[in-house]
Amino acid sequence: PIIYRKDYKPYPWLLPSVRLEFDLALERTRVVNTMEVRRNPAGEATPVLRLDGDNLEPLEVRIDGEATQSWTMDGPALLVTVPGDEHSVSIVTEFDPSANTVLMGLYASNGMLCTQCEAEGFRRITFFPDRPDVLSTYTVRMEAEKESFPVLLSNGNRTDAGDLTDGRHYAEWHDPWPKPSYLFALVVGDLVANSDSFTTMSGREVALNIYVRDGDLERTHHAMSSLKASMKWDEEAFGREYDLDLFNIVAVSDFNMGAMENKGLNVFNTKYVLADPETATDGDFDGVEGVIAHEYFHNWSGNRVTCRDWFQLSLKEGFTVLRDQLFSQDMQGEAVKRIEDVRVLRGAQFPEDSGPLAHPIRPDSYREISNFYTATIYNKGAEVIRMMRTMAGPQAFRKGCDLYFERHDGEAATCEDFVKAMEDGAGLDLTQFRRWYEQAGTPTVTVRLDHSGDEATLSLRQDVPPTPGQPAKHPMPIPLRIALFDRDEGTHQGEQLVMLTENEKTITFDGFAKKPVLSINRNFSAPVIIERKTPRDKLVFLAARDDDPFARSEAMQDLVVGHLLDDVSEKLTDSERDGVRADIAQAYAAVIADEALDDQMRGELMLLPTQTYLMEKMRIADPGRIFAAREGLKAYLGKELQEQFHRLYERVEQVLFSLDREAKGARKVKNLILTFAAASDPSKASELAAHQYNRADNMTDRQGALMVLAGLDGVERTNALIDFYNRYEDNPLVIDKWFSLQAISLHPNAIEHVKALAAHKDFTLRNPNRVRALYGSFTGNPHAFHAESGEGYRLIADCILALDPLNPQIAARFVPALGRWRKMEPKRAKMMRKELERISEADALSRDTFEQVTRSLV
Ligand code: ARG
Ligand code: ZN
After folding, report:
1. Nearest ligand 1 atom to alpha carbon 373
2. Distance 738 CA to ligand 1 centre (A)
């Protein structure tokens, strides 16, 4: 069935408190769930209590302590009929956690038991109104064998614990904050903790624990310092203080997503907790910091104020992503973080918005909510809130946030509530702005700058493309930061914020005797596509002189993108191609030589646009040709700038290892240079990469070198891959890298490698990280996934079919890669479609995969 946002109705019952009693074991867990229920005056009057269930049977139902037969099943749901307005209803369920491969509800991982309830996993544990607008106070009692499960954790504070007979023990936990079922968590296992504490702004002392398996303790320090930094930052930047005496984090190795913000007991994918220089890259360190912050920030944006229904998911996710982005900007440097965030948006969200799965940040309908944990809800959602911040200014924005938290604390709120609080608190009129919540599709803004006499005239036009179910669009309010540069002076008179609210707008600026150079959408003030014909020399100027770091990197990207698109469309004669390439090389040389740049920013400016971004820029894409053009440019630059790269490499190679910005920048530049060398002079690159690999004292250097080697032929490749495996055999997160970098490698035989790796003894479809490492990386491999033979598509379709019965959530995540068929040249489009059809014909397809495949085929 399809669920519609417009059909929302409050639940007819209130559940002020719940008591859950767990008798836990890997293969058989028993749950006694006792709910206090009371008629909801705001709901429909009915004697029936509809309780969601999934894969459960009620072993016993009691009303006010008396066993009753007053219940029936309605599909997976349990309907209990109660005689009056206030009762206690108990239900007993039992299941086998070790057989739970879906990794939703309560499941076994690595000998421990843990839960994942968001969005609808709680109904796999017990019958319950499993929806975010039913808030209850939870008391949890756990009982388990002491030797295998010495640690017993749940939300809130531990109120009791002790030994039982037969080597068993118990613990009781109480969470004083009312919460929806999706925030429930329980973890039991043989765990050790890194313990610390944090004193909040009002002087409350909070005990902090990060629980991991025995050998991993030494890799939790970065997570702990990130947690403390997040707690401090949320007090300073948003005035948000933590509200329990205890904050626990547990790392588990089988996890569908990144992490989960359960009240007082965050559960994390090990990937976002464990990090040390030997086994984690700089990117991994940043990932840990960002996700720790994200989950912590949910304590307010998500837990204290939660969502009324899942259509409001972006209310907590978009806002929390913005909050973690602002935090990381403060920790890591604003410019580079902003550029990276925009790269992620363009790489993951723009394709969503222009494809068959496009949906507004607040969708109107869904079949399976798990399919809506998307880059649109998260990352575009963050951009939409960031625009409000840009329009209001940071101080007024903060007032709007304060009002939102104050008004809705303890409630299940809507996106509309947030917008209203922003209007009232920040003093904005967001009437038209609400369209950002309603309309899908990335607007294109076409820009022209004319000049005559003393006047410069800026003409803007917006087009919001049709998306599935939304053929015609209204104009959106688009905040564009602009600056007009004096070409000779290299300066401008100050930045302005232009609001494009209609389809078209013309603005005149006086006092420009000469035509200025326009810098627009500075700091990516709006999540739109800017369409303009900027002459190359102006782009070269901006790439060297723009004082907005994002706009500067954008000019550099535009320079390269413009050229690659011309090259792909075979518009260029050889001499034209050489002319443009020479301009690009010169811009690169300027970036290399610019002493005012730090190496992290230098690295950003030297990154070529991704293949996905290039495909997005074309109506119909031929991945083979884009790949060839991009590699061609890489080889040209590698050769042309050989000397400069060499000297730069020699300089950054001297920087000693540390985690500060300078040293991270040095490693980024080092690895980038290797990729250019690999394209221009493979044998030299092999040598250089082998050298870097062998002397590496950290994972960033080692992985960067191995990635390049994995794409080349020769004994260096084989030796390094064997060495890496042997060195890290016992560390699953590092072995994930070993799978991933072979699957994404530029090696011509990458498909064969992936097939062989799928048969490797360390490969399993049961571990999401391993599946993502192999197949997720493979879908990002620009030449192998899109191989002309169609073999790459077949491989992914086979993977989806094999995975679907085990873990539908993860299986469905692979569908969008095939769903891009409309964008592809006809031959590939046909093959991709055929694979989608083959999947759709399989019987007993999960709701997750079914929804994604059907939407992708229309
Ligand atoms: N709320 C979590 C986060 O943003 C994501 C959990 C989603 N899990 C899922 N199985 N859909 O960090
Ligand atoms: Zn989140």
Report:
1. 11
2. 26
* Closest ligand 1 atom to Cα of 291: 12
373 CB less than 6 Å from ligand 1? yes
Question: How buried is 625 (Cβ within 10 angstroms: 0-12 exposed, 13-18 middle, 19+ buried)?
Answer: middle
Cis peptide before 690 (omega within 30 of 0): no
**Is 655 strand, coil or helix?**
coil
Backbone angles phi, psi at 650, to 5 degrees: -60, -35
Phi, psi of 168 (to 5 degrees): -110, 160
What are the residues whose beta carbons fall under 8 Å from the beta carbon of 606, sequence distance 6 or more? 588, 591, 592, 669, 672
What is the reported pTM? 0.99
- Report H helices in 609-681: 611-616, 623-640, 642-653, 661-680
The sign of the CA dihedral 214, 217, 218, 219 is positive
Q: What is the pLDDT of residues 696-751, one digit of tens each?
A: 999 999 999 999 999 999 999 999 999 999 999 999 999 999 999 999 999 999 99
The encoded tokens of residue 675 equal: 């990729």
Euclidean distance between the first and final Cα of the chain, in Å? 18
pLDDT tens digits for 625-641?
Answer: 999 999 999 999 999 99
d(CA 56, CA 92): 10
> CA-CA distance, 673 to 22, in Å (whole number)?
56
Residue corresponding to tokens 């994942």:
116
What is d(CA 65, CA 85) in angstroms, rounded to the nearest whole number? Answer: 16
- 10 Å CB burial of residue 646 (0-12, 13-18, 19+) is middle
Active site residue 295: yes
Nearest-5° angle of CA 101, CA 735, CA 795?
Answer: 60
**From CA 116, how far away is CA 259, in angstroms rounded?**
9
Measured between alpha carbons, how far is 595 from 128 in angstroms, rounded to an integer?
Answer: 62
Where in 411-514 does DSSP place strands (E)? 412-413, 444-452, 455-463, 478-486, 491-492, 496-500, 504-509
Q: Which of 284-294 are b and which e, b meaning 16 or more Cβ less than 10 Å from the residue's Cβ?
A: bbbbbbbbbbb
Q: Is the pLDDT of residue 571 over 90?
A: no
Q: Is the beta carbon of 256 within 6 A of some atom in ligand 1?
A: yes
Query: Across residues 597-618, what is the average pLDDT?
Result: 97
Contact in structure between 733 and 767 (CB atoms under 8 Å): no
Q: What is the ipTM of this complex?
A: 0.97
List of residues 6+ apart from 127 with CB closer than 8 A: 33, 51, 52, 53, 56, 58, 77, 78, 91, 93
**How far from chain centre, in Å, is Cα 596?**
32
The DSSP code sequence of 204-249 is -EEEEEEEE-GGGGGG-HHHHHHHHHHHHHHHHHH-----SSEEEE
Q: Which two tokens stand for residue 768?
A: 């999401």
How many residues can be counted in the chain? Answer: 858
In angstroms, what is the span from residue 222 Cα to ligand 2's centroid?
20
CB 178 within 8 A of CB 243: no
Ligand 1 mutation pick, 260, 296, 368, max ligand atoms within 8 A of CB: 260
- CA angle 308/310/312 to nearest 5° reads 65
Q: Is the CB of 260 under 6 A from ligand 1?
A: yes
**Residue 45 burial by CB count (10 A; 0-12/13-18/19+): exposed, middle or buried?**
exposed
Report DSSP letters for 521-564, one per residue: SGGG-SS-EEE----HHHHHHHHHH-SSHHHHHHHHHHHHHHHH
Report the phi/psi class of residue 629: left, alpha or beta, with left for phi > 0 and alpha for psi in -120 to 50: alpha
